Amino acid sequence: MAGQIPRHFIDDLLARTDIVELIDHRVPLKKAGKNYQACCPFHNEKSPSFTVSSDKQFYHCFGCGAHGNAISFMMAYEQLEFVEAIEELAKQHHLEIPREQGSGKQYPQAQADDYSQMQKAADLYQQQLKQQVHAATYLQKRGISEATATKYSIGYAPDSWDFVLKQLGASRSARDQLFEIKLISRNDQGREYDFFRDRLMFPIRDKRGRVIGFGGRVIGEGTPKYLNSPETRLFHKGRELYGLYEARQSQDRLSRVLIVEGYMDVVGLAEQGISFAVACLGTATTPDHMHTLFRLTSTVTCCYDGDRAGRDAAWRALQSALPHLKDGVELNFVFLPDGEDPDSLVQKEGKETFLKRLEQAMPLGQYLFDHLAKELDLNSDAGKSALWVKGNELIKQIPSEFYRDALFETLGSLVGKSSQQNTTARGQNKVQSKAPAATKITPMRRAIALLLQYPALAKVMPLAPELAEANLPGIQLLLTVQNTLLAQPELTTAQLLEHWRDTPEYNIVVKLALWDHQVAEEQLTKEFLDTFRSIEDQYLGQRLEELQRKDTLQQLTTAEKHEFVLLLKAFKSK
Q1: Is the CA virtual torsion 526, 527, 531, 537 positive or negative?
Q2: Short-list 497, 503, 487, CA closest to 448
Q3: pLDDT higher for 428 or 341?
Q4: What is the pLDDT of residue 427?
Q5: DSSP state at residue 104
Q6: Which of these, 255, 258, 243, lies nearest to 207 by C-alpha position?
Q7: What is the pTM of this model?
Q8: Out of 140-154, 183-197, 428-442, 468-482, which region has the weakest mean confidence (pLDDT)?
Q9: Average pLDDT, whole number, for the chain?
Q10: Mind giving me the DSSP string for 286-322?
Q11: What integer pLDDT is reported at residue 303 of this predicted model?
């Protein structure tokens, strides 16, 4: 991965972070024997089942199954992506994050004061809004109060070629930076001038509240009506949502999010007390947008105009959302009357009436089949066949088994499929279940589990590189854990598990790290060595069978004959 964070830095970051202190700052913990307990922050419960281990630097909830290390907790509790969680922990320890060079797509790294320059520009625009009467008057006419303008840091870029350039571009390097983050532009002759002029300015913030770009709206009749910051090393429009930071600041947990089309819609709704709206930034709703939103909330409502353009935007949003429809989330749609947008409509009918519209939103399934059926003749076999094919292609993208089954049921009734035929189709499109049967603890898994939970056992584990040739499921994982710990004997369970994040083995490694072995502490070393010896015996048994086959065929070498005799004696003596 391009720009990947080095493994040694992640290990060091976890070593510096005390998970008990990290979690206790957010969820008060109480001592319970060797560990700490609390009511789980990820589901409602009356008695504590959320346990934090100081030794393993790991948390686990016996109620809902939530588990992980400090990075996992920050991702789940603060609703951050992996890199964002790393950044937040590094910030707490005042560490700069190094990056490895790699192949593939790579965004340029932000310079140290890029965010500072963007914030300075936002402050300048806010000052100008207070000084330019016609800009402030325009906002008032649109029904936006000073308090709402302040909440969203709305400003004004004056009708000047070099307002920002003069204020922030004192040196050549400063002007180069302003150009790279697109606060100024350059023409072919090298002339420099402000990118935004004579526009109402809407700062776009990332999830941490840092200004990364701007949206500018004309006050008069100029074009384009909206001008957005181009893509820069700070700003990637397909990943960001206007108003998301402010929505999260308005409430502890977002119970729902409303996707609208424009900056003024977000601000206008907030003015009426509806503070959970966000807007895409001059682009269609992307899979990245949906991934972000479904990490933050359980209900996403798309609110678009009822015209063709609005319906097309809704369909693109639905297609982007399908791969992210996990159990427990909901997607629905609201289409507004012709000529209305959320900003104008909420001012006409008020907050309560507008919220009732949201309560009556069209469910995902209804919109999906309405859209597909609109251009098909369902009275004909050809139309039903086309609906069946198109519906299957879309439904099979959904990871939630509940959603898939419900939508297949509806699809079957629309095309006249019998329940038996429909069940067959569901089976063909079935995504692998996320809830496999309980893990069977074999000797191999027992050894891996004990080693993961007690990394110090690597010091007593015999070196047996020949086991790499054994036909034993899990042997490569066991040896990899051993080699990792021999190279880094100070690793905790939490650090070890981080080495397997985003790998096929991660789920089984986590399960083994959480397995309740019920072995007394003073018996751990003996239990581990006995288990390891049973694995060695399995390997030696396989080797003996192999040599016996070669002996039957008279294919043994001199060294193999000697090995064969020794193995026979060893097994006879047991």
Answers
A1: positive
A2: 497
A3: 341
A4: 54
A5: S
A6: 243
A7: 0.69
A8: 428-442
A9: 88
A10: PHHHHHHHHHH-SEEEEEEESSHHHHHHHHHHHHHHG
A11: 95
- pLDDT exceeds 90 at position 31: yes
Contact 455, 485 (CB under 8 A): yes
Cα(245)–Cα(237) distance, rounded to whole angstroms? Answer: 15
**DSSP H stretches of helix in 322-380:** 342-359, 364-374
- In the three-class reduction of DSSP (H, G, I as helix; E, B as strand; rest coil), residue 32 is classed as strand
What gap in Å lies between CA 157 and CA 550, rounded to an integer?
A: 85
**Residue 574, class by beta-carbon neighbours within 10 Å (0-12 exposed, 13-18 middle, 19+ buried)?**
exposed
Axis-axis angle for helices 7-16, 82-92 (nearest 10): 50
pLDDT in tens, 420-431: 555 555 555 544
What is the average per-residue pLDDT within 81-107? 78
The number of residues in the chain equals: 574
pLDDT of res. 555: 80
Distance CA 148, CA 450 (A): 56
Residue 371, SS3? helix
Rg (CA), the chain: 30
Phi and psi at residue 568, to the nearest 5° = -60, -45
Buried-exposed string 12-45: b where 16+ CB fall within 10 A, e elsewhere: ebbeebebbebbeeebebeeeeebbbbbbeeeee
- Asked if residues 429 and 404 have their Cβ atoms less than 8 Å apart, the reply is yes
The pair of three-digit structure tokens given for residue 409, joined into one six-digit string:
């049921």
Distance in angstroms (rounded) separating the CA atoms of residues 344 and 268:
8
Q: Which of 210, 299, 308 is nearest to 259 (CA)?
A: 299
Instruction: Label residue 563 by pLDDT band (50, 70, 90).
Output: confident
Determine the residue type at 419: S
pLDDT of residue 86: 93
Say which residue the tokens 């027992």 belong to.
Answer: 446
Query: In a 3-state reduction of DSSP, which class is residue 38?
Result: strand
- Please list the residues that pair with 186 across neighbouring strands: 192
In one letter, which amino acid is 383? Answer: G
User: What are 483-512's pLDDT values in tens digits?
Assistant: 999 999 999 999 999 999 888 888 889 989
Q: Is 251 helix (H, G, I), strand (E, B) or coil?
A: coil
Is the Cβ–Cβ distance between 302 and 259 less than 8 Å?
yes
Phi-psi category of residue 32: left, alpha or beta, with phi > 0 → left and psi -120 to 50 → alpha: beta
And the tokens for 361? 């939103």
Give one word for 470, left, alpha or beta, with left for phi > 0 and alpha for psi -120 to 50: beta
What are the φ/ψ torsions at residue 234 (nearest 5 degrees)? -100, -35
Mean pLDDT of 117-143: 95
Q: Which helix (H) or strand (E) holds 407?
A: helix 401-415
Answer for the pair 114, 203: CB distance below 8 angstroms, yes or no.
no
- Does the pLDDT at position 524 exceed 60? yes
Other residues' Cβ atoms within 10 Å of the Cβ of residue 312: 13
Closest CA to 502 of 72, 52, 41: 72
Query: How far apart are the C-alpha atoms of 481 and 497, rounded to whole Å?
Result: 10
514 DSSP assignment? H
CA pair distance 163, 127, nearest whole angstrom: 12
**Please, which residues have CB within 8 angstroms of residue 297's CB and are 6 or more apart in sequence?**
254, 255, 256, 257, 329
DSSP string computed for 167-185 = HH--SHHHHHHHHHTTSEE
- Which pLDDT band, with edges at 50, 70 and 90, does 2 fall under? very low
